[in-house]
TrEMBL record:
Keyword Aminoacyl-tRNA synthetase among record annotations: no
Family: Belongs to the DegT/DnrJ/EryC1 family.
The protein's name: DegT/DnrJ/EryC1/StrS family aminotransferase
Taxonomic source organism: Flammeovirga kamogawensis
UniProt keyword list: Aminotransferase, Pyridoxal phosphate, Transferase
Annotated InterPro entries: DegT/StrS_aminotransferase, PyrdxlP-dep_Trfase, PyrdxlP-dep_Trfase_major, PyrdxlP-dep_Trfase_small
PANTHER family in UniProt: 3-OXO-GLUCOSE-6-PHOSPHATE:GLUTAMATE AMINOTRANSFERASE, TRANSAMINASE
Superkingdom, natural source: Bacteria
Alphabetized Pfam families for the sequence: DegT_DnrJ_EryC1
Amino acid sequence: MIVPFLSLDSIHTSIKKEVLSAIEQVYNANDFILGEKLTAFEEQYAKATGVNYCVGVGNGLDALKIALLALDINKGDEVIIPANTFFATLQAVVLVGAKPILVDVNQKDGLIDIDLLKKSITSKTKAILPVHMYGNVADVLSILKLIKGKEIYLIEDNAQAHLATLKNQFTGSFGHINATSFYPGKNLGALGDGGAITTNSKELADKCKAIRNYGSSEKYYYDVLGENSRLDNLQAAVLSVKLKYLPEWTLERKKIAAIYAKELLGIGDISMFEIENTVGHVYHLFTILTEHRDQLSAFLKEKNIQTIVHYPVPIHLQKSVANLGYKKGDFPVSEKIANSILSLPLFIGLTNKEQMYVVAQIKLFFSVNNLLHA
Ligand SMILES: *Cc1c(COP(=O)(O)O)cnc(C)c1O
């Protein structure tokens, strides 16, 4: 049996007709940029996630950058981010010229540590940018309490958490402005790059619409400097089709995750992140933590099971940001996660047989290596 980490075969086969017809409509209309399909998707996504406005952009990194630019965050400003995230979160802050202030995460869930965050707020803090890692929900309610009455913005990085909820409210709707990605492998994925900004503020939405389009709100008038980063109509049309199925797919992810969680409990030295908010997690990834990560991953590979490490090098130790002056040991929890985390196969269409094969091989690894009670 071969079990890939991710396969889009199942969903792309099941919705093929609908997607091809949506693509054909764009093709026939010759309406490719900033057209009807984009507006329709933006309205649908806003409605589906409980916000007033959605602005489609080229990708998740641009969504983060444009959100920061819309808040006028630049040189001299500090933006607090978790040390455990995908590199784009950090890169967006650096690219707009602001200073990223990294904060370690909780051991129990890998999400930004609120006590450490509190200590990192200074007079220069302009925004706090938590990340809903793996589809699990960062404690945005505590962050909102912390910044109440202060001139500090909340920006959610919702790239891994489409339709995740906290107290029945969708992530990506708590912040003043929020960013997400529709990279093909995300829970809601385009057939190429894509991303979006969500907000309840008309002013911020309008600003983002200008920035994504050369800084222009009226054709050929450029009041601010912007970029060229628009979600194109082909991708928007595809995303509109997929969005209809996302609630169903999200339930399937949760079911698969629940089986892993049950089966792997107490196996070897495996630990799993605690999920306080069980209903809200959308399991973009199912991760386990083990001291024997590299051996386990190699063992599974031999058994034709593909796993991935998200992510092997913590963001503060990446070469391109060496000038920030962070060093090994600065964020021990994030570093420990990077050394021990492993993401298991989880995708729509993963069969129970395949999943139980993965589980069996993990159990075999720990019994063969006599680490079962390590
Ligand atoms: C994927 C991702 C991004 C970047 O999205 P792209 O569309 O690939 O640019 C940003 N933040 C997080 C947490 C992500 O997982």
